[in-house]
Specification:
heterodimer, A: 58 residues, alpha+beta, two-stranded antiparallel sheet, 3 helices, 41% helix, B: 151 residues, alpha/beta, 6 strands, 42% helix
Amino acid sequence: MSLVEEGGERKIRMANLAILGSHSTNGAAAIHSKLLRTITVKDLAEMSPSALAPRPMG
Amino acid sequence: MRKDVAFACPAVRGKPAPGLQAVGNGSRKLSVRTFTRRPGSPLLRHNVDWNHFPEKVAIQLNDTYPSMAVAELMRILLDDAHLGWDQAFELTKRTLAYTNHTLLPEALEKGQSPGLKTFSRAISKSSTKSTGVSSTKFVFVSRVTTDACSA
């Protein structure tokens, strides 16, 4: 969940930064959004459900 | 009300990447490079109360390349507009939205030099001013994480 990847050179996780710094995150398609919410950034989605809530596309 | 809507996307010689269009009434195309590197960026020319900035401007981060806009808008609000941290973070969140294009965790972009150096400088500058704590590169980041966790 951290914005910083530790170990060796510290790096910023740009996706986490974008999610935390914005009010809304969506994927490129409904299924993409669902997978993002349930797998890729599951911890962030649980922390702020409204930011990654399902929403109609287009 | 007129509202500028912009896609922040990877810049190719200062222009938005092909295939991406800005939408909305009175909208302007804007590259992340324009947004992050030009103080006189079109989106920042509104002579408005910063509290109303999110009502005038919406920025869609198209993929992670323009994520730096989070740090840059925070820097502008903290250092140039002299707002408090909480207010600046609230305005930043309301202004920005993000479209993810990558599901594989190992494929997600990690910020590193040379972008990270610029990023770190903005972080150090902002965090030192706003929190008064000694300048460490990642205070901004840990502060954002803390805020988000307590929200």
